[in-house]
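Extended Data, panel c. Modelled sequence:
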Amino acid sequence: MANPLVAVCQMTSTNDKEKNFKTVRELTEKAKCRSACIAFFPEACDYLADNKKDVIAMAQPLNGSTVTSYKEIAKTNKIWLSLGGLHEALCDNESHISNTHIVINSEGEIVSTYRKMHLFDMDNKSTGVRLMESDYVTPGQKIESPIPTPIGKLALSICYDMRFPELALSLRNMGAEILTYPSAFTYQTGAAHWEVILRARAIETQCYVIAAAQTGTHNKKRVSWGHAMIIDPWGTVIGQCSEKTDMVLAEIDLNLILKNIREIIF
């Protein structure tokens, strides 16, 4: 039987939720047409606002209309979706939200959720750039167990989590075969660290790494690096997007590549 195909997607979210949703739908349809069984979307695929007030006001709970629409996309196209992290409204906190990665199966059901543990805070006085996720996001408190999917045991993380190898190693020890890092990586740090960090996480865990990404200019305050990619357990980049809204496919070969690499290293 042929190895399963995954699609890693790249987009430029703005505060226009309808436009962002249309992009997710179109990329999902493209992934399905090319026989992918799961499509991965970046952090903030629902929207990327330029101020705290709008970030909170636009957030919805996981039973809201946005996630309901994503479920319909998955069910209609008979494809799994990894969406993370979405802006999740919290019923017990009106000043903060959760940055939540969800996985929806091909029947349109949520099968796993992970709330971002490591928040990205940057207040650079010299450049005047201030991106303080902790101003409006409540950090998650739990590492979620990897889940069985058509491509293997999938572990959920989000963006800045990739800088913490302890999390990746914990997920590997919990049985992960594929690590995910849906991201909105800043341009400057992305140019320097994006690929090398993701390859390091793959090499040290002997897992596939799938990192969907935001790309380009979102607003006056925010530009993302892009370069969504898929990396095999040897640390080789086997699929990568360029600088625009797009997707790239790659095979996940657990029976051959993953097994052999872990035997070689250990």
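The domain at 5-261 is CATH 3.60.110.10 (Nitrilase/N-carbamoyl-D-aminoacid amidohydrolase). This feature is highlighted in the accompanying rendering.
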